[in-house]
Amino acid sequence: MLDAVTPIEARRPERTLTVSEGSKTTPCSASECTLGSCPLLHELGVSKTYSPNSVVFFEGDDAAHYFLITSGVLRGCKLLEDGRRQINRFIFAGDLIGYSINPKYTFTVEAVTPVTLVALRRSAVENRVEASPCLHSAIMKSVLSELDEMQDQLVTLGRMNAEERVSRFLCLLAERSASMPAGLARDDLAQIEIPMCRNDIADYLGLTIETVSRVLSRLKADGKIAMPSCNRIVLTGRDRLKTEPGDIAA
Amino acid sequence: MLDAVTPIEARRPERTLTVSEGSKTTPCSASECTLGSCPLLHELGVSKTYSPNSVVFFEGDDAAHYFLITSGVLRGCKLLEDGRRQINRFIFAGDLIGYSINPKYTFTVEAVTPVTLVALRRSAVENRVEASPCLHSAIMKSVLSELDEMQDQLVTLGRMNAEERVSRFLCLLAERSASMPAGLARDDLAQIEIPMCRNDIADYLGLTIETVSRVLSRLKADGKIAMPSCNRIVLTGRDRLKTEPGDIAA
DNA sequence: CGATTACTTGATACTGTTCAATATCCGTGG
DNA sequence: CCACGGATATTGAACAGTATCAAGTAATCG
C-alpha cells in the first residue's frame, strides 16, 4: 500500500522560503521575486513574535492584515460549535497568510511553535500590488499553491485510510523539513522533527489521537519508521512511505 | 445534529454568474466586472460544448487554456492508481477553471450534464490581465472563492459524519440552484434538481454510493426531505438541514 | 419490451472511534 | 538528585459507523 500511489507534489515548483533577515533594500527584481525574500514587504510591515498556542487571528476577525511567516510553524483551523476541529493546513516559514475573499478571516491561525512573522496592513499591500506586478504574481502563486495543497488534502481525507494519511503527512513534513534552514542530518535517512502534537496531527488528518498513535506504532513495528523520541521520526531506508494523491489511474 | 452548526457560506459574497449570451461589446466597467459577464473574455475565447461524461481536460495535460463555464455542471476530480476517485468540486455556470501554479492541470474535469463553455488560451488571458486590473481582480476572486470552498470541504471530509455530509451537500446544491437561471418553483420549499449521479455524490463526499443512498432514505423517513424522483429533492419546511463548517465554537 | 444502468435495501465485516488504563516526558520543588 | 505532578503519548477492549458484498427494484434507452 505504501508504494501504491505517487505524489503530485513532485510536480510542484519548489517552495521558496528565503527569508532575508537583513532586509537589504534591493529593488524588486522582476521574475525572481519571492514573498519571503521581498525587501519591500519586510519594510512595509511590523515584525511580531508569538509563543506556542497563542492566536494570530480568529475566524471572524476583520481581515485587516496579511502575515508573512519568518520562522516557526502555525496551524490554520476551523472549529465547530460542538468542539470538533479541523486543521486545514500547517503554515511554515515563507508562507503568506491572511488573504481572503471575505472581509473577515475564514479560519483561525495559532502558533504551534514559537513564531516570528511580519504583519502587513492589507490596504498597504494592495496599494503596492497595483504598482508591482511582481508582487502581485508572487501573491497569486502563494494562493494557487495553497489551493493545490488543499486539493491534495481533500483526496487524503476523502479517500485514504489511516495509515495512508499518516504516511503522507510524514512525507509532506519531510519535504518541508528538507528545505528548512535548521538542517538536520539529512543524508540517506530523512530524520524529521515533528513540531506539532498528536492532537494537531489528528485534527489535520481527520483522525483521533489514538489512531495516529497506533498507526505510528505499527509503522515502527513494520520497520518503516524509527522514533528516537515521540516528536522525532526517521523515515528508514528507501521504502520511505510513498502514499500520495493526484496520481493518474492507468 | 442538523441544526448544530451554521454556515460560513452565509458570509460569502454572492456568486456572480450572469452569463451574457449576447456578448455585447460594452467595455469592462471597473468594479462591477465579473468573469461571466465580461464581454472581453467571451470574445477572446472559443465556445465549445461537451456531452455528459466527456472530458474537458485530464490531470497531467498541458494547462494551455482557461475555461469559463456558460452552462451545465462539471466535476473536477483526482484519480488514484487503484481506482479510487475524489471529486474535489462540482463546477457550475459562471465558474472559471484551469488556473494552476503548475504548467500541467492537477486534476481532471469532466462534464456531468451537457456543458457549454468558452475556452480561452492561457497566454491570451494573461496578456489581457496585465492591461486590465479589473479582469485580474475577477480572477483572483474566483481563485479565492474556490479556496474558501475547498477549506469548508476539508471540514466536511475530515470531521463530519455521513448524514452531515449529505445534508451539507444538499444545502450547497440548493444555494447554487437558487441562483441558477432555470428557476424551479422556489417559494417556501426549495426543490433541487440533482444533476449528478449517486456515484459522483459519493466520490465528492468521501462515502460510498450505498451510504449516500441510505442517508437519503433516512432523511426522507425523518421527513427532512422529499424525493419525488431520485434526482429531485425537496428540502421540506424550515428545518432545512443546516450542517455546515466554519462555525466559531463558543 | 427487453436489456442495461442506476438506485435502494439487507446482512455482515472491518476500520477507526470511544472509553479507560497505563506509560512516558518534562518541569518544579523538596 | 530524586520525587512528584501534570501534560502528552501509548496501548487495550468494546463499540459504532461506514464499507463491502449481494440481492432486489426502479429508471432509461434502444
Could you give a short description of this structure?
Chain A has 250 residues and is of the alpha+beta class. Chain A has 6 helices and 11 strands. The first copy, chain A, binds a DNA duplex (30 and 30 nucleotides) through residues 161-162, 197-199, 207-214, 216-217, 229-230.
What does this structure look like?
- The structure is a homodimer of 250-residue chains.
- Chain A has 250 residues and is of the alpha+beta class.
- In chain A, 32% of the residues lie in helices and 22% in strands.
- The two termini of chain A are 16 Å apart.
- The N terminus of chain A is likely disordered.
- Chain A has 2 domains: 149 residues, Jelly Rolls, CATH 2.60.120; 82 residues, Winged helix-like DNA-binding domain superfamily/Winged helix DNA-binding domain (Arc Repressor Mutant, subunit A), CATH 1.10.10.10.
- The first copy, chain A, has a 4-stranded antiparallel beta sheet with strand order 1-8-3-6. In chain A, strands 2-7-4-5 form a 4-stranded antiparallel beta sheet.
- The first copy, chain A, has 6 helices and 11 strands.
- In chain A, helix 2 packs across helix 3 and helix 5 packs across helix 6.
- The radius of gyration of chain A is 19 Å and the shape is globular.
- The interface between A and B is large, with 55 and 55 residues.
- Chain A binds a DNA duplex (30 and 30 nucleotides) through helix 6.
